[in-house]
Amino acid sequence: MNRIAGETHWTALAQGEPPEFTDVLTAVQAELLREGLEASNHRPHLTLSYWPPEPLGILPIRPIPWRIDEILLVRGCGHGPDYHYEVLGSWGLHAVPADAQIELF
């Protein structure tokens, strides 16, 4: 993650979009469409605030490496302060030695 930005919610955003993320997203979207479900587009991010006090332009930050050890498939439910995610499925990723860093984002 190398910047924070957002209008309706603030998010930490990844530098670039790694091909591995695109591959996973493409596969998930294809399966959702096959099941007749909506397949929206996403990018690597971490939500920091859903109801920030004001819009935020792009704020560069010192890059933060982010290790990924699990992928979740979630569905957004509710509205406003009751908004939450329902986990539909989860997949653990292969363990990596403690001295190695996954450079996914």
Give an account of the 3D structure.
- By secondary structure, the chain is of the alpha+beta class.
- It has one domain (3-92).
- The chain is 15% helix and 33% strand.
- It has one helix and six strands, in the order ββαββββ.
- It has one helix spanning 19-34, and strands at 3-6, 10-13, 45-49, 56-60, 70-77, 84-92.
Q: Can you summarize this structure?
A:
The chain is an alpha+beta fold.
The H-and-E topology, N to C, reads as: EEHEEEE
Distance between the termini: 7 Å
Would you tell me the structural class of the helices and strands?
Answer: alpha+beta
| Rg estimate, integer Å | 15 Å
Question: How much helix, percentage-wise, in residues?
Answer: 10-25%
Q: Which band does the percent of strand residues land in?
A: 25-35%
Low-confidence region ranges: none
Q: How many separate helices?
A: 1
Main β-sheet, spatial strand arrangement: 3-2-1-4
- Biggest sheet character: 4 strands, antiparallel
Shape: globular
Total number of distinct structural domains: 1
Q: How many runs of DSSP E, i.e. beta strands?
A: 6
Name the average pLDDT: 84
Protein name: 2'-5' RNA ligase
